[in-house]
Amino acid sequence: MNRENKKKSYKKGYYKSHACNESFICKVCGRLVVPNGAGSDHRNHCPYCLSSQHLDIEPGDREADCGETMEPVAVWVRKNGEWAIIHRCKICGTLSSNRIAADDNPMKLMSIAMKPVSSPPFPLEKIEKMTKLMGGDGELKW
């Protein structure tokens, strides 16, 4: 059974209390995603490209009508030190947070984490000037 049919096949809230133990094909990278190796009973994104699908309004409810791809746009660290991925729906823009899985691609996770550092919203050449304006001496010492 594929992910598109789950909403039709199970009662509302089924996935809040039941493990998600079905395999699926990722709509982004086309790889087979199996539940084994996730480190939890709720596989909710591809471990290779980290993409997800907009299925839920609340975790496990399968109430979202959108069904579009959710792209990984950021990572954050929860207060217990566990990492989570922020996904954004390509159609409606909904944001959601999903814990990382044990078998997630570590290079892809680091790539997403470093994106703000490698692509700041200002030219890197302006760092010295900005530092001076903030009261520092503005000198970059190597």
Overview of this protein structure:
This is RNHCP domain-containing protein. It comes from Ruminococcus intestinalis. Residues 21-110 form the RNHCP domain. With 142 residues, this protein is an alpha+beta fold. It has one domain. Helices cover 20% and strands 19% of the residues. It has 4 helices and 6 strands; from the N terminus they run ααββββββαα. Strands 3-4-5-6 form a 4-stranded antiparallel β-sheet, covered by helices on one side. It has a two-stranded antiparallel sheet with strand order 1-2. Strand 4 and strand 5 (83-89) form a beta hairpin. The termini are far apart. Mean pLDDT is 79; it is low at 1-8.
A few lines on this structure:
This protein is an alpha+beta fold and 142 residues long.
Distinctive features:
142 residues; alpha+beta; two-stranded antiparallel ribbon; 6 strands; 19% strand; elongated; disordered N terminus
